[in-house]
Amino acid sequence: MNLLFSNDRLGEYPPSLYAATRDPLPAFPEQRGEARADVVVVGAGYTGLSAALHLAEAGRDVMVLEAHRVGFGASGRNGGQLGSGQRLEVDELERMAGVEAALRLWDMAEEAKRLTRDLAARANVPVLDGIAHAFRKPAELDHARGLIERLARDYGYDRIEALERDAFRALVPSDAYVAGELDHGAGHLNPLNLVIGMARLADAAGANIRELSHVHHIRHGRRAGEKTVVQTGKGRVICDHVILAGNGYLGNLDTHVAARVMPINNFIVATEPLGARAAQVLTQPIGVHDTKFVVNYWRLDPEGRLIFGGGENVSYRFPADIAAKVRKPLLQIYPGLADVKLTYAWGGTLAITMNRMPCFARPAPNCLSASGYSGHGLALANLAGKLMAQAIEGQGDGFDSMAALPSPAFPGGAALRWPMLVAGMGWYSLRDRLGF
Ligand SMILES: Cc1cc2nc3c(=O)[nH]c(=O)nc-3n(C[C@H](O)[C@H](O)[C@H](O)COP(=O)(O)OP(=O)(O)OC[C@H]3O[C@@H](n4cnc5c(N)ncnc54)[C@H](O)[C@@H]3O)c2cc1C
For residue 83, which atom of ligand 1 is closest to its CA? Predict the structure, then answer.
């Protein structure tokens, strides 16, 4: 079983709102026969296309090999929330890596947001400002106040506002929450149009993008000057460097990465346009996510449809009725929407790590990999692609400083992590044991 092929049709986008309303992008050719490139990138999501764009702009001969279509993976299916910071809060980062590293990681995350906003502007994709965090308990507001103060004092970030019950409900009219905060420096956007726009930019800069080109084997060059051979179904590419950008869909193409990065599925629905009822959901054009472990996240699109994400599973298969799975948390937050039609329902596969920090690695001498953004990849994946391009160009130490962070393997490693979870122990008990 391979997540690349288990829930979707070959070369087709999922039945999402994004796919149904996407900007046009002509198909790129399939890779056939033998070709050469300086760099091969496996996967055409944000990570891969950001790497390809930066490499092509630096004058490198780069080829992107995508098993399906540009943006087929999480990049074309996600909640579109461009959050601040890393997936871990700064206190946790300080405990994990020290104060200096935490400061650097915060700055990198800010750079990731700026880069993504810049790519969105170049791709003509609007970014709307404001992401609210919805709290279920008063203690969460106390915790947030402390963090807001620390971020302003020690990290130079003063764009988050704490919101008491009434102020929060004026923004998010739901009885499910007691307070919240609003990050004015975060934002939201159409994720598939961003990745489509990035493909256009990379193509215009000279990158060779290949669709329907599944990479099933890589023979790495091990000694100086030895080439790497990347094998697809109908062709192969001989190159100096390879970048792995398959994230949750990479499977066991590389066992070092597979042991550290675990795929997990997450689900979204979109309603019919809500008209005047949109104000019962949000009174401002912001995005929202809450503090549940299986996080709920939502926003309105320009036509007033509610795009709501909630629910996950760890399985090769999505549930048969995704809409029913997501409707449950949606109605807990907005019971008044019980009669609203869910017009689209889709799933996607992201990737998590044991410590919820991305896994940057050099699995072989001429191979770079970045993945496992743990639900925070919209900005970070774009930065990861740029850092890998810079590492190949011999510029900066951003990639190596990320690769120096601890990246522990999951129990069971590459061979066992999934069978163990899917068959026996279960995701939820593992989560409790690991303290996720
Ligand atoms: C439902 C959902 C909601 C999310 N919401 C948010 C959010 O609101 N905010 C946020 O920051 N993050 C969110 N994320 C996470 C975010 O989407 C990802 O972190 C990010 O898109 C990862 O980008 P990527 O390019 O690394 O991977 P992907 O976009 O998954 O791209 C990987 C690509 O590699 C290709 N591929 C894999 N293996 C091969 C192979 N062997 N040969 C050829 N091609 C291959 C795949 O087909 C795929 O197109 C969400 C994810 C999901 C699934």
Answer: 11
C-alpha of residue 253 to centroid of ligand 1, in Å: 16
Angle at CA 278, nearest 5°, toward 298 and 16? 45
What percent of the chain is helix, strand and coil (3-state, nearest 5)? 40, 25, 35
Looking at the CA of residue 289, tell me the nearest atom of ligand 1. Answer: 8
- Which among 350, 359, 367, 386 is the best mutation to test ligand 1's pocket, defined by most ligand atoms within 8 Å of the CB? 350
What confidence tens digit (pLDDT) does each residue in 388-423 have? 999 999 998 999 999 999 999 988 777 666 655 555
pTM value?
0.96
Q: Which run of H or of E encompasses 194? A: helix 191-204
If phi > 0 it is left, if psi is from -120 to 50 it is alpha, else beta; for residue 374 that is left
Are 73 and 43 contacting, i.e. CB atoms less than 8 angstroms apart?
yes
Give the chain's radius of gyration (CA, Å). Answer: 21
Task: Output DSSP code: residue 341.
Answer: -
The predicted-structure confidence for 296-346, as pLDDT tens digits, reads as follows 999 999 999 999 999 999 888 999 999 999 999 999 999 999 999 999 999
For residues 164 and 142, the answer to whether their CB atoms sit within 8 Å is no
Atom 16 of ligand 1, residue of closest alpha carbon: 377
Compute the distance from residue 271 Cα to the ligand 1 centre, in Å: 23
Q: Which atom of ligand 1 is nearest to the CA of 379?
A: 11
Domain 27-124+189-261+355-405 has CATH 3.40.630.30: no
Cβ of 168 below 6 Å from ligand 1: no
Return the domain boundaries, the chain.
27-124+189-261+355-405
pLDDT 10s digits, 50-104 = 999 999 999 999 999 999 999 999 999 999 999 999 999 999 999 999 999 999 9
Does ligand 1 lie within 6 Å of residue 340's CB atom?
A: no
Indicate if the alpha-carbon torsion angle 252, 258, 261, 264 is positive or negative: positive
CA-to-CA distance for 374 and 260, rounded, in angstroms? 12
**Ligand 1 mean position, distance from CA 353 (Å):** 14
